[in-house]
Design brief:
There is one protein chain. The two termini are 32 Å apart. The protein is mainly alpha-helical and 86 residues long. It has one domain (11-84). A two-stranded antiparallel ribbon has the order 1-2. The protein has helices at residues 11-25, 28-36; strands spanning 74-75, 83-84.
Length: 86
Amino acid sequence: MFNNPGMTITIYNGAVIFGLAGTSALSPQNIAYGFENKDIYPFNTEPFAEGDFLMSSLSERAQVIPCSQCPKRRKRRKGKQLTRIS
């Protein structure tokens, strides 16, 4: 994200970005430190509201295909077969 400011994060590259962060955050050492604090009080049994479970706007966006992946156009000339334009 620092290398490409303003670039839209799609579902596909978002999974890669957050997957890398998740593996760092879920290390055995971090999990062990989380259980060392036993004084979790007061415990909130309902920390999430119904609105927290609604669909994300990320999943409602149209997929944008970069030009390098766009299918090549074919040009038709009179009396000739279809040829691929490079």
